[in-house]
Write a structure and sequence with these properties.
By secondary structure, the chain is an alpha/beta fold. Helices cover about 25% and strands about 25% of the residues. The protein binds S-adenosyl-L-homocysteine. S-adenosyl-L-homocysteine binds next to β2, α4 and β4.
């Protein structure tokens, strides 16, 4: 990625965002660095660009939203990335979380059900010179079996239950982070596939995400 193309005008805003994330307990320096390197203002529509570095969700059109940076940071912490991982992301949306992941993992596969969002995200990632990401338009609720197993699967939309096909695409030691619930009540779930093949599921937080559509969705 060519960091020279990052708009310096927003540097101070990005700093403020990063200090806010730190104040709220995000300590992983690699994650904070990714927030510094990836220009969030390039992933939001013009009309809301002035709010790019506020810790708020913003509308993307098509009834979808780019999540709050704080939510992205939490998901990244839960993913516990070292840089070597094969990652699947469900719900590319703007592509912002995809870009953050590209800085923290070896390869990212990302699926988005809304064709226009998928196209726009792919263009942005290419314009930024990000090369370790593969995107696809379509239903990702049952994963992307061709590139499994994954060390990490992150889902940015809330499912009715933990989709079994996603669990089956985890490798040993892998983790799946997914919001589960409906519009009124959601919890953020992390599922581990332990090295001995057993599963451990924990509820990490409450959550508020758009619904997961498709075969394993609502
Ligand atoms: N993290 C994203 C925001 C995700 S919003 C960002 O940074 O912008 C959740 C996204 O999941 C939406 O764009 C929605 O269209 C998409 N989505 C919902 N159901 C899906 C499915 N079954 N497969 C792939 N994407 C899906």
């Amino acid at each position: 990625m060519d960091a020279g193309r990052v708009d310096p005008a927003y540097r101070r805003d990005r700093r403020r965002l990063i200090e806010g994330l730190q104040a709220r307990g995000i300590e992983d320096l690699a994650i904070l660095h990714a927030f510094d390197v990836i220009p969030r203002h390039m992933f939001v529509p013009d009309a809301v660009r002035h709010r790019s570095y506020d810790d708020v969700a913003l509308p993307l059109g098509h009834g979808q939203t780019i999540s709050r940076p704080g939510a992205h940071a939490l998901h990244l912490e839960l993913a516990d990335l070292s840089g070597k991982e094969n990652v699947l992301e469900i719900g590319t949306g703007s592509g912002y979380q995809t870009a953050l992941l590209s800085q923290l993992a070896a390869h990212v596969y990302s699926v988005e059900t809304v064709q226009q969002l998928a196209d726009l995200a792919a263009d942005r990632l290419r314009d930024l010179g990000i090369e370790n990401v593969t995107t696809r338009a379509g239903d990702g609720s049952a994963g992307w079996p061709e590139h499994a197993p994954y060390d990490v699967i992150l889902c940015g939309a809330a499912a009715p239950r933990v989709p079994q096909p996603l669990v089956e695409q985890l490798g040993p030691g892998g983790r799946l982070v997914i919001p589960v619930g409906d519009n009124s009540r959601q919890r953020l779930v992390r599922v581990f596939l332990l090295a001995d093949g057993t599963l451990r599921e924990e509820t990490v937080d409450s959550a508020r995400f758009v619904p997961l559509k498709g075969e394993e969705g609502w």
